[in-house]
Design a protein that fits this description.
Blueprint lengths: L1 H9 L1 E2 L2 E2 L6 E5 L5 E8 L9 E10 L2 E11 H8 L8
Antiparallel strand pairs: 1-2, 3-4, 4-5, 5-6
Length: 89
């Protein structure tokens, strides 16, 4: 099962992982907290702007501080999570 998830994440175009439902991305903050985002959906708003609905878990070591659903515009999500630069299986 983990191997399947890893293979799905390795599917890259132009050096960037696809932001698709089920894809997982990781961002490490300056204070060494790790944000892990799993894409749930890619809705568009009323004027056509693409968004990413995702589940985020923020942890440091073994402690989880945040585990919730969030929404960001697609470009903001890519800027935050690198959308390929730091994906996590």
């Amino acid at each position: 099962m983990l191997a399947e998830a890893f293979e799905r994440l390795r599917n890259r175009r132009g050096g960037r992982a696809d932001v698709t439902p089920g894809a997982v991305f990781r961002h490490e903050t300056r204070d060494r907290a790790v944000e892990t985002a799993e894409v749930i959906d890619l809705p568009r708003d009323g004027i056509g702007i693409a968004h990413v609905r995702f589940r985020v878990r923020i942890s440091r070591g073994d402690a989880v501080f945040v585990d919730e659903e969030r929404v960001l515009a697609l470009e903001s999500f890519r800027a935050r999570f690198g959308a390929g630069a730091g994906f996590a299986p």
